[in-house]
Amino acid sequence: MFNLKKIIILIMSIALTAGVAVKAPALDTDEEWLGEKPEWMPDISLENAFFTKYIWRGQNLGDEPVMQTDFSVSKWGLTFDFWTNYTLNNDKSVDSGRYQEYTEIDYTIDYSFNFGELSESMEMDIPEMMEALSMSFGYTYYTFPNTDWNSEAFDSHEVYAGVSYDCLLQPFFTWYWDVDDGDGSYYIAGISHTLEFDGGITADVGMTTAYNDEQWTPESGWSDMNFSGSVTIPFMNYFYVTPSVSYSLILDRDTYEDAQENEFYGGIAVGFSY
To answer: Burial of 127 by CB count in 10 Å (0-12 exposed, 13-18 middle, 19+ buried)?
Structure first.
């Protein structure tokens, strides 16, 4: 249960993040007040999100409220991403003693491309059915601050490859292979659908299911399913607010040594994109 102090911390954090947008010049929302982006300039995004708990691939990594920050820079299909998780726990007796600190900082390099766009830029002919096909490849360096940096538990390395298809339900499949401490693979497939409304508002619903092949666990099995829904509300051209809810369903408790439970969680994100 949230106590009053936790609620105040969460509300203040959301207000501070939203304040970045509120202090922006109060111009007509139809006007691109940052000006036209130069052709050489990469896409930049910054998002601050607050969740009731930290659920990762079906595993509960923090049963207290968390703040997650994501910053990315993209150009020519190449993306550099910086992500952090900060626990808002204010009771040292719960949640493994983690107390208002960064529990995870990740660095990701990703390269993604669409076959249709690639063939057009290279003036190549490909079968029409391949034009909607996209692929991605990447590497993530996981670090866990506030642990002994000399220990094996301080960091880990993961590579991944994914494929998606731009059609009804937007199906995708991704293989994650932790080549270090996680020492295993995680395979996830999913579908999603987006509804568009006036004012640029969108609603997204999605479902994923995954198979864990001894990644951070001694057993293999169909590990989890996730059902999610979110609404994205843009404002002032470059900003957005996204409330979301999710439900994580454990499929095989032996995979996680019966240590994980079904989880319902939610949150809100405030972001900037240019």
So the answer is: exposed
Kindly state the helix (H) or strand (E) to which residue 57 belongs, with its residue range. Answer: none
Note the pLDDT tens digit of each residue in 34-83: 778 888 899 999 999 999 999 999 999 888 899 999 999 999 999 999 99
User: pTM of the entire structure?
Assistant: 0.84
Pair 220, 212: CB distance under 8 Å: yes
C-alpha to C-alpha distances, 128 to 58, 131, 133, 182, nearest whole angstrom:
37, 5, 10, 39
Domain 4-273 bears CATH identifier 3.20.20.140: no
DSSP 112-145: EEEHHHHHHHTT----GGGTTEEEEEEEEEEE-T
Q: Measured between alpha carbons, how far is 65 from 216 in angstroms, rounded to an integer? A: 23
